[in-house]
């Protein structure tokens, strides 16, 4: 087991554990990405997105780029949720301006019955990147590992890529639910192994991205997404060398299910920008911390508008324990690096002043 440098800034982990912090910690989904010129340069050097993700040295470089530029309170592994189905043999490619594509999507019963939990050795490049990032961070901020939810990765595995209506997977859901349950159960096992390997390699918190759970009906969300996330969470190693490993679950569009989500064993829930934080906090009580939830499009506004909207989100949560500031979804590639700087600065400045005026 590798030993790592002691953590200098544990604000993010403390907020997830619902302990007091001097200010509200902040990190941003997709903080390493195309809005940064230094990312575009490293990606060009790598050749493609997958070559970048599969090269631990370059993956480390792009993970740390936003940490060097901004005062962020956590780093997130640079990788993708689709590495797991790629290791299952589905053949992942990223097509310029079209997003991810699978050469061998799951279309019939034979494809589905053949699906197996992959050998984690195929994902060694991810675990190597985790360890290398953790070493290079040298204790500056904690490192977040992540995976897609079983349902969200199934969307790509069955559709073969991005979809606007999820016609293929929903046809399977309503005509052969047994096949979809089989896929989800394989995905849940694979995801638990994958996250535990990231934790063993040095991830200090992990997050499940359920980007498409919010496209499901109330009934189907429980049955096809939430219950499999519960299975994943139940299998995770939650402590390493006496340090707790917090788990964050984020269903985009899941604001109406917060009570149910808060009971699957996660430490925190991610919220998109459609949910009011005051109300969300009242609904989940002390069961979980909350992460979010400014509208990512605010980054297209002026500096004054960005700062004012940050203050609104911080005021909604107030000074209670248990808030991690984030966007409600990933940063757009069209956001400017300056706008992100205004946001991070205002989170720290205003959240400190809220606590000072409260104790004065
Ligand atoms: O947040 C971070 O900085 C960590 C890295 C990260 C990426 N993808 C890098 C990436 C994370 C956490 C993800 C998760 C991911 N990947 C999700 C869930 C979160 C979400 O955004 O809803 C999903 C659905 C995917 C699948 C995926 N990967 C899509 C649909 C695309 C294409 C869309 C796009 O923005 O081009 C990707 C590619 C991808 N993953 C990029 C990055 C930085 C852009 C690729 C590039 O450089 O060309």
Task: Walk me through what this model shows.
By secondary structure, this protein is α/β, with parallel strands linked by helices. The chain contains 15 helices and eleven strands. The chain has helices spanning 11-16, 37-46, 49-53, 56-69, 83-90, 109-114, 124-137, 150-159, 167-175, 177-201, 218-234, 258-261, 277-284, 303-317, 337-359; strands spanning 75-76, 92-95, 99-102, 143-148, 205-210, 239-240, 243-244, 247-251, 268-270, 289-294, 323-327. The strands form three sheets. Strands 1-4-5-8-9-10-11 form a seven-stranded parallel β-sheet. It starts with 10 loop residues before the first helix and ends with a helix. Coproporphyrinogen III (CP3) binds next to strand 3. Residues 29-34, 43, 49, 76, 78, 80-82, 94, 99-100, 146, 162, 209, 211, 330 line the site of coproporphyrinogen III.
Task: Sum this structure up briefly.
With 360 residues, the protein is of the alpha/beta class. Helix content is 48%, strand content 12%. Helix 2 (37-46) runs antiparallel to helix 4, helix 4 (56-69) runs parallel beside helix 7 (124-137) and helix 14 crosses helix 15.
Helices and strands in order, then pairings?
Elements: H1 11-16, H2 37-46, H3 49-53, H4 56-69, E1 75-76, H5 83-90, E2 92-95, E3 99-102, H6 109-114, H7 124-137, E4 143-148, H8 150-159, H9 167-175, H10 177-201, E5 205-210, H11 218-234, E6 239-240, E7 243-244, E8 247-251, H12 258-261, E9 268-270, H13 277-284, E10 289-294, H14 303-317, E11 323-327, H15 337-359
Parallel strand pairs: 1-4, 4-5, 5-8, 8-9, 9-10, 10-11
Antiparallel strand pairs: 2-3, 6-7
The structure holds coproporphyrinogen III.
